[in-house]
Structure formats: C-alpha cells, structure tokens
## 1
Amino acid sequence: MSSDPWADLVDRIVSCERCPRLVEYRRKVAENPPRRFRGQQYWARPLPGFGDREARILVVGLAPAAHGGNRTGRMFTGDSSADFLMRTLHYFGLASMPRSVSRDDGLQLRGVFLTAPVRCAPPENRPTREELENCYPYLKEEFSLLRNVRVVVALGAIGFAAAKHLLQDAGFVHEGRKRPEFKHGAHYVYRNAEGRTVHLLASYHPSRQNTNTGRLTDAMFRRVFRKAVDLAGT
C-alpha cells in the first residue's frame, strides 16, 4: 500500500473486476471497435475520477462511454458528451481547453473534479443496481478525499440519485421540506453537523440523445454551471 491515498484509490479502481458483465462488455467493445477507431488501443478498464483535487465543484455523471472514456482512459474524454461539457467548463474558466480528446491532450481542470457512479462502460448506458452498488464505495472514497467541495452538479437521474446517497452517507442533511427530486435546474441545500454547506444542482446529462434533440442546450447547461460557479466562489 502506498502512503498516498489518491494513488491507492486509483490503483484499486483501475484493477477492479467486481462486475463480470461490465468486464466482458468493456473488453468486447475494445476488440470490436467501429471503423473510425480501428487501430487505436482501447483503455478497456475502469476509470478513476479526473480533475482538480482541491476542487470546490464536483460533477457526477453516469459512466464512461463505450467509445469515449472506455477508449481514451479518462473520464469525459473522446465523445460528444465530453465536448459539450468541456465547452461549458472552458467558458467559465474551469478547463484549459474547450475539448477533451485524449489522456495526453494537455487538458487541465481548475476548481472542478469529474467522476461517475459507474466506472466501466455499461451496455446501452444502463448499469444494474448491483453494478451501481459495487462501484459506489469508490465514489464515496473520492468524496472523502475531496475536502473542499461546495457544489455537486449531478448530470442525469442516476448521477443525481448517487449524489444524494453520497451526501447523506457523508452526514449531510437536506434542509428543505420538499424531498429532493431530479429536475433540470433544481437546487437543493445540504448541511452537516459542523455547519458545512454543500449545494446539489441537477442537470440533464449532456448525452447525444439530449443535446441533439434540444432537450439540453448550451444556454441551459451554462445556467446550471453559472450557478455552480457562483455558489462555489471560484
């Protein structure tokens, strides 16, 4: 065991084989890539989170894309969802570049950390409950190491459910009377016994299904992140 808790966590995530269905799928995808990615070496392993470890904003997505993160080896890298998110992060000065292409593209994040409740690409982007439960300890451990988080931006209903679970397990209590429910643009306030406040913001996931249909636009996404930046004080 290393004396660096981040290094230990990353090693355990990358070597994880808890979910046989996901292990089989990520390898199958790598062995049978579409024509545009033929000849590329796929990562085909679980993904750790990526970003600033002193971040005040934590972004919780769903899972790596089969030909995105599963190919490139970095969270939110190499697909249309990554480009949509990075364009917004760059707009607010949270990313050094407007695109996330590969692990060695030089992209740096400032004040934001990207993660997901599932670390392997699931078939049809639909993880099972057991797979979510198997992966959850990694998310929980990441959050415990991210000591400066003030805002959690949850992308999609699964990310939102994971974020609520995460905050509750960390001792945060929702302040409002109404039960937190996923809705684009929703804002909930959580506090712990020490008086620390964390804001939970909800957004539609920047999947192609949402962005190509206009369900999620750049303007809608920017409004969520404008609020996140303001609340985080970055």
## 2
Amino acid sequence: MSRRGRELCTVRSVGDGVYVHKGRRATFVRASPTGMPPSLQERQTLDVFCHTYTPRAGDVVVDIGAGMGEEAVTFARLVGPAGRVISVEAHPRTYSHLQRVCAINGLDNVTPVLCAVSDRPGVTVIDDGPEGDAGWASARIGAGNTRVEATTIDALTAELTRVDLLTMNIEGAEQLAIRGMVESLPKIRHVVVSCHDFVLEPGYPGGDPAWFATYERVSTFFRDAGFTVAPPRSTDERAWLRYHMYASR
C-alpha cells in the first residue's frame, strides 16, 4: 500500500477484525489489513464525488451512505472549519467505525448520523450483506434482519438553509430517497448519486433490475426538478463509475 500510494502507510489491528490504516494526511478504519491507501482514497473521492463540483470553504455537504468515512475525511478538509459535513450511515456497525474515523482524524466539522434514508420516516430493516460482512460492503434497505430508524432527506435537511453538495451511495435505495425530497430540493445546488445499474452487466453479481436499475429514474427526477444533469461518464473503464449521476443548478 505504501508503494501504491507513494507514501508511508502503516496498518495495525485493533481487534474484532478491524484495522487502522494511517497515512500522512488521513487515517481510515477498514475490515482488512490491505486495501486502498489513504492518499489514493482521497484522489478517488475527488474524482468520483467532486467530478462536477468541488466543495469550498464554508460549504455544507450532506453525504448519505457515508460508510466508514472514506469521503468524509476529504469533504471535511475541503469545507474547512467554517463548513459542515453531515455523514449519514444506516448500518450500526459501519456507523461505529465512521464515528471512530471522525474522532481519529479530529473531524470537528463532521456530524455523523445513524439512520437509513428512505421515502418516509419510521423503522426499516437492512440487509447485512454476505455472512460475516456485517454491513461493511453493502446494506440493502428494506430487506434483512437489522432494524434501523429511517428518515427522509426533507427531515434530514430541515434545519439547513442550503446544501452545496448532496451525495448518495445507498445501494439502490436512492429510488426511495428521492421520494422524500420535496421541501429540500430548492436548498440543494449539486448532487451526486451512485447508481448501481452496473451490477446487472455481464461479469457482475446481478440482482433485481427493479431495485438496481435506477440511473434513468434518478436522472429524470432531478431533470424534472430543474437541475442540469451532466452527461454520464460512459467511456470510463470503471463500470461502476459510468452510472454515477451528476446534477447541478
């Protein structure tokens, strides 16, 4: 990892299958002793989520499906002390590591929130993914055994006057989340949604098209709401990136 990232990366086990990866500018918590070096993680965040807009000092970022804080570290640095990052994660175990990443990196401008984002408030269930995965990779909302509180984007952003960048990476549940966006839409300037249509392509795990084929639905939703939807990154060799939806106004 030090060779890949071209900087020293140290890794230590903290027990319970958790590893802390420390680089020069950031520290991450992972489920494996190997993975993407912190320096490359930052570059990927800028490439994927800041493709059409890079947050500035004082901006407000809402990161839905924050995982273990991989993007939160970069967002926090970009918005600075005057800005704010709201990092939302549904799975309790993954959320605990998001909290740890915020503490280790001193991310005082990041507010971690434990909840699922859906079309209505209440209680829902999420899928833990493969046995033993415990939500590290994917957690499908509406299926599984882990009960979690759910909210809407309208409720999540009710106290905000603006959202400069909204990101969503929630494994197909974006089709539910957009139904809970009515009052919040005028506040939002830039949106990035990680759609998962690519899992239906040859060589990928597949799944229910009604759940995972969301790119066109999400694009149409934001276009109808007055956003300009950027052309898809259709020539990128990374299939998962070709289905990221970028919209601005």
## 3
Amino acid sequence: MNPLLPFLMAGDPSLEALPRLLSEAKALGLPALELGLPHSDPIADGPVLQAAAQRAINRGATPLRVLEGLAGITDSPDLILFTYLNPIYTYGYDRFHHDAAAAGADGVLVLDLPPDEAAQNSELKPAPDLRHIQLIAPTSPTERIASIAKCAEGFVYYVSRLGVTGAQAEIASGIAEQVAIIKAATQVPVCVGFGVSNPEQAATIASKADGVVVGSAIVKLIEQNGSSADCAAKLEAFVKPLVGAVHAL
C-alpha cells in the first residue's frame, strides 16, 4: 500500500481546529501526516506555506502551544513534525524532543539540519525520543545519498524538484531513477513530495515510491475555506480522491 502523507500547518486555521482536523485525517484512513510548526523564516517553504505559518503565528501559535495542544489529542494519525532548527534550538534541543515525544509526535523533520552537521555539533546529535526523517535533494550525488540514507529513521523524504514548496502543473522528471538509488542505500521507505497537487500526480508518484507528500494544495484549500462552516467537508472532498489514487495501485 502506498500511503498518502498530507501536510497541515499547526495553528491554521486555528489551534482549536487541530484536534478535529487530525481526527478527520485518521477517519479517512491516513496512517500519518506532516504537521508544520509555524516559523517566521521558513526558507524551504513557498508562498502558500509561508502565508499559513504567518497566519498561525498571528493567532498565537508557538512550538510550546502546539505541543501543549497535541498532548490532549488521542485520535490522530502518526505525526511527523516539520520544522527548522532555530525554533527547536530556541526551545532547547533535548527539551523539544522530550516534550514532542510526550505530546504524541512520532518523528521530526528538521529541514535545515543536514545529518553531517548534526554529527559535528554534540548538542545537535539526534535525540532518541523521535525518529529523525532525512531529506534528499534531486541534485544529491550517489555518495551523498548513501551517507544521508544510512542516517534515516522512519522514512526518507525525497524532494522531487529544486526550489521551495508549492503545487505544480506537472511532476518532476527522474523520480523513479532517484527513488531506486535511494532505496538501494536504505531499508526505510522513500516518500516523494514538493509539487504534488492532484490525484493523477499522486498516483504516478505512488507507482514509483512508498509514499506521496501533498502539502501546499491542502494548505491553500484551508486558506480559502478556513473560516467557513463547510471547510471540513471541502477538505474531505479534496483528500478522498488523493487517498483513492495512491491506494488503488
């Protein structure tokens, strides 16, 4: 089975809405999702995710408040926290990992912390409380892929295109070849993201990889409908075909 891995920004449309969104995600049969921690300088994020992070920050979302909110949620898919080093470092590296695990998070993806840099700084070495997801770029040479893949826990996130996040009209080329190279270097699943926005794209990528990440398209829908009473219904209507597309293979 090729799982869909959706992305939500914690605090958008509100922190109060997060338990319902996570419960609905689980009801749709989603095994896991990425949950973004709002950050004021998200260098890998495109305009849709940047705007969502800023909306969440404006409404009072902080890493501490997000983790406090997660601690009371019992009905949720597995959660991968999608964040940057600065908020974790400010929070306290060890403390963040402990608190995130205690709140129910299963893994963390720190976008701007390469594993070799973590190894060179004792205070940034992977803590045991969470699985550390690793990113691999389309420009990574084979030896770099092997080095990163051997550190991966949970899954490897293959970034299918250069640049920042954002829905695209067409998927990137060379995905099957790159996924094969990564899978030869690791035993963990390989998920592909950056640019996936419709069921056809999701199905194509799911035929080549172990999972498909869909972020900006979902976050844009929340931006457009977050204040309306039928936001949940519209999200379900958007996500269901994506789920069907990746599970039909």
